[in-house]
Design goal:
about 45% helix; rod-shaped
Length: about 50
């Protein structure tokens, strides 16, 4: 639906499927998971 179809009013962001998250995790949680994973790789490397 274009803006001209609904009287010039744009759709809210939550309606746009491009804004859907593919993960239930927040950006902060993903950053923590990645940081901990990287730290874990260093730990495994020192053991081997």
């Amino acid at each position: 639906m274009s803006e001209s179809d609904n009287g010039g009013v744009s759709e809210p962001d939550w309606v746009n499927p491009a804004n859907d998250r593919k993960t239930p995790y927040s950006d902060e949680e993903i950053d923590r998971f990645v940081d901990d994973f990287i730290l874990g790789l260093g730990y495994v490397r020192t053991i081997c």
